[in-house]
Design a protein that fits this description.
Rossmann fold, alpha/beta, three-stranded antiparallel sheet, seven-stranded parallel sheet
């Protein structure tokens, strides 16, 4: 595990984008695992800038996203497809037919998860998986629990996750209570993992996840076992650890 300290959020975003752009340049047909949430927005903005400057070509890239809310269609401005389209897909030359997320409108959870497992398998494997870090240690929507879930599954979101996401909705009641998410086994099968984290409010979970015990109660702790993990974090997020 390699930890790269960034000065602030902008520096974190720049450093993370450079790692992703290097992957695209080295392998134009790469498979990127993508994440949503507030933390990677700056990283996507930097990638768009590099594309606009003529330094990146997304035409051969395939993407698979970590998760999607259950019950939100793609046109809903809080769906993760909408997020990805708004922050990246619509601003670069990616082939939308090669961008994949779980089907949030599939009511049959078993079918939705099996379908997405097949999609991921058909890509041939994720070359680089981008992750954020939840306040409770979740990655994707793999919430604290008794086990590490293997593949795509339907999760009941915890109250802390609902509370963290309610700022994006008109009211807390509108926040979906379930989501489809990649499992830990799928995430860990990525050849390289890049985790971005920012802010003093994440400092304690950074310490617990990456310097504490490996436990499903802190799902991100399993990343300690991966052979190629890069964490790009700003000074505030790293304030409780010694580097």
């Amino acid at each position: 595990m390699k930890i790269i300290k960034a000065k602030d959020y902008d520096d974190m975003s720049r450093k993370a984008a450079n790692i992703i752009s290097a992957q695209i340049i080295m392998k134009p047909s790469c498979v990127l695992g993508l994440a949503t949430g507030s933390t990677p927005i700056g990283t996507y903005a930097r990638l768009v800038e590099q594309y606009q400057q003529g330094d990146l070509d997304f035409s051969g890239v395939t993407t698979v996203n970590l998760d999607e809310y259950k019950g939100l269609n793609r046109e809903n401005d809080q769906s993760y497809y909408y997020f990805m389209n708004d922050n990246l897909f619509s601003k670069v030359n990616i082939d939308l037919k090669k961008t994949f997320l779980p089907d949030g409108m599939e009511p049959d959870a078993k079918k939705a998860c099996e379908d997405y497992n097949r999609v991921i398998a058909a890509t041939g494997g994720v070359d680089l998986q981008l992750l954020g870090l939840g306040h409770n240690g979740h990655i994707g929507f793999n919430e604290p629990g008794e086990v590490f879930e293997a593949e795509t599954h339907c999760v009941d979101l915890t109250e802390s996750t609902i509370a963290a996401n309610k700022r994006f909705f008109a009211s807390e009641e509108e926040v979906p209570r379930q989501a489809y998410t990649m499992g830990i086994k799928t995430i860990m099968q990525a050849k390289k993992i890049l985790l971005v984290v920012s802010g003093a409010d994440k400092a304690s979970i950074v310490k617990e996840a990456f310097y504490g015990a490996i436990t499903p109660r802190v799902q991100a702790s399993v990343l300690q076992l991966h052979k190629d993990v890069i964490i790009v974090a700003d000074e505030a997020a790293l304030s409780e650890v010694c580097l």
